[in-house]
Amino acid sequence: MAHTELNVSSVSEGYTSTITAGHHMYYLDEPERVGGHDLGPNPLQALLGALIGCETITAVAIAKEMKIDLHNLSFSVNGAYNSRGLKGDSSIRTYFEKVEIKATFDSNESPERLEALQLETERRCPVYNLLKAADVNLISHWEKG
Q1: Could you give the CA distance from residue 139 to residue 85 in angstroms, rounded to a whole number?
Q2: Backbone angles phi, psi at 90, to 5 degrees
C-alpha cells in the first residue's frame, strides 16, 4: 500500500498567514473590512479552490485512464455556510452546509461515458470525499460547454 505524507507550514501575523507547501508560498487572509490585509483568499475560499483543483486533476487523470475525449474542462463552485457558527453559536456548524459544483467541458463522448467519468472523479477525489464525509450537501452539475 502506498503511503504519502504532505507537509505544509505557516507563519502568521494577525489574520494573514504565509503558507509554505514544498517550494510554493501563498497567503491566506481576510478582507481589510474585517481586519486582514486581503493578500489572499480566506481559508474557506481556499478550500473551495482546493476542491475544484482536486476535481480537475482527478478528472483529467481518470479521463486519460478511460481514454475519454475531454477538453476545456472548467469548474466553478459556490459554498454556503451560516456565519453564526464561526461567531460562536455552538448549535451551528462552522463549515459549509452546501457546496454546488459546476463543471463544463467539450467532449465527443456519450452521456453514459461522461457520467461514468463524473462518478469516478467524485469517488476518487480526496477533497470531494473529505467534504462528503463531513456531511456537506454536495450538488454537482457536469455538462458539455
Answers
A1: 22
A2: -70, -10
Superfamily classification of domain 43-144: K homology (KH) domain (3.30.300.20)
Domain boundaries, the chain: 1-40, 43-144
Closest-CA residue to 131 (of 77, 91, 87): 77
**Mean pLDDT for the stretch of residues 47-75:** 98
Pairwise CA distance, residues 34 & 104, whole Å: 34
Query: Looking at residues 99-128, what average pLDDT do you find?
Result: 98
Q: How far apart are the first and last CA of the chain?
A: 38
Q: Quick one: cell of 145?
A: 460547454
Mean pLDDT of 78-91: 95
d(CA 52, CA 41): 15
Note whether 122 and 104 are within 8 A (CB): no
